[in-house]
Amino acid sequence: MSEKAVLQFRGKTYELPVIVGTEGEIAIDVQSLRAQSGLITLDEGYANTGSCRSSITFIDGEKGILRYRGYPIEELAEHSNFVETAYLVIFGELPTAQQLADFRALLSEHEYLHEDLRHHFEGFPPNAHPMGTLSAMINAANSFQPVLLQPEDDARFMDSAARLMSKVRTIAAASYKKSVGQPMNYPRPDLPYVSNFLHMMFSRPNKPYEPDPDAVRALDLILTLHADHEQNCSTSTVRMVGSSQANMWASASAGVCALWGPLHGGANTAVVQMLEQIHQSGESVEQIIVKVKAKNSKMKLMGFGHRVYKNFDPRAKIIKKACDVVLEKLKRTDPLLDIAKKLEEAALNDSYFVERKLYPNVDFYSGIILRAIGIPVNMFTVIFAIGRMPGWIANWREVHLDPNSRIYRPRQIYTGPTLRSYVPMEQRGR
Ligand code: CMC
């Protein structure tokens, strides 16, 4: 017999179904609540709202657990790679050798941009932020695609997913080239996904670039760790847009915009800017911690805290470990890494952070690795977007495959003026 939750309100009792997830998470299904009682639920910022049922990613924020389709992030980081993980996230299972080869072949086949689309880049000013360019160009690229989405058909959907994943990477590199005034590179069909991106980013007509295998591995790890993260702000945006039956490109373009902000994907940029500022000003980490904690402080310790993780973000643990290895392999040192480690230590021993359960998140150390690879700071969030694309595609597809899917349309509690009559201009006092 299914469990029920009981709500008492104004002398009446209402029974609401309890939904249990496969990992034992429990939720009250409130869909019938308003019809029964007139009540809606109010949860500003959705901190306690399950907006959907999803079989893609599982997070236990108290225990610091993250799994894609059941596989722990630690195992995927060690044994998998971005393209394989993308396949897993989108299609639900690890691919066979043949399935992976087919997916890789599609990623290569779709890596080019239509020549007319390449001309669109000329309209952006040189200092345009690559996130704005990326979002606009994903939407523009949509006009050049046949409508082949077919979410219910694995093989055809694989083609659509590969098109988006592959072209996003080409667009991202092109937006960087545009921002530094260099000619855009064509992709090289002989290179796999990540090396090809680095080639498009860094090759110049007068200076060919051969992707360094350590840099490729490091970037691959970053992308793998970002592949999905359940109902975060940008993924919820993609689902929201997709729920109106807007196509996958339009939905992904909206996801890029949501990701851009410093409280979400933009935090990786903000962390490095904060560390650079500390480095240049010579302020001590203690001074920074005091500033962050000050009453009414607008300053946050960027890269710290998370809506869901009240323990270590497992991705941050993996990236922190990788930082030392990557810097050593690439023969780099970075004073920002020392500052970051000192900041982390100071914060983790400070009651402000301990009481609020604020730990380093994925963005705290990822910028150190991206800097070591040579990725410019204004491209950090773009890298996040490339990495998150499989998650957005999988979530978009889930919305479309769900037979019970409805347009996302929350309610509100109105707090504005009550009914009043129109006042003619000549009677308005001001
Ligand atoms: N530095 C200082 N104080 C903080 C921080 C921080 N980074 N994060 C949260 N707090 C404080 C916050 O001021 C509040 O204090 P009080 O209870 O005294 O009012 C308390 O901790 C609870 O925070 P919250 O604002 O309710 O937390 P939230 O769940 O609404 O926000 C967050 C989560 C990630 C937006 C927030 O922790 C934050 O702004 N962090 C810095 C930005 C950042 O690193 N974002 C990346 C998130 S992970 C990757 C991604 O999603 O893109």
Entry summary:
With 430 residues, the chain is mostly helical. The protein has helices spanning 33-37, 73-79, 82-91, 97-109, 115-120, 130-142, 154-179, 193-202, 213-225, 233-243, 248-260, 267-281, 285-293, 314-329, 335-348, 351-355, 362-373, 380-401, and strands at residues 4-9, 12-20, 26-28, 57-60, 65-68, 71-72. Helix 9 runs antiparallel to helix 17 (362-373) and helix 14 (314-329) packs parallel to helix 17 (362-373).
Characterization of the model:
By secondary structure, this protein is mainly alpha-helical. It contains 18 helices and six strands. The chain has helices spanning 33-37, 73-79, 82-91, 97-109, 115-120, 130-142, 154-179, 193-202, 213-225, 233-243, 248-260, 267-281, 285-293, 314-329, 335-348, 351-355, 362-373, 380-401; strands at 4-9, 12-20, 26-28, 57-60, 65-68, 71-72. The strands form two sheets. The protein has a three-stranded antiparallel beta sheet with strand order 1-2-3. Strands 4-5-6 form a three-stranded antiparallel beta sheet. Strand 5 and strand 6 form a beta hairpin. Helix 7 (154-179) packs parallel to helix 8 (193-202), helix 7 (154-179) packs antiparallel against helix 18 (380-401) and helix 14 runs parallel beside helix 17. The protein is globular. The model has no long low-confidence stretch (mean pLDDT 94). The site of carboxymethyl coenzyme *A has 19 residues, from helix 17.
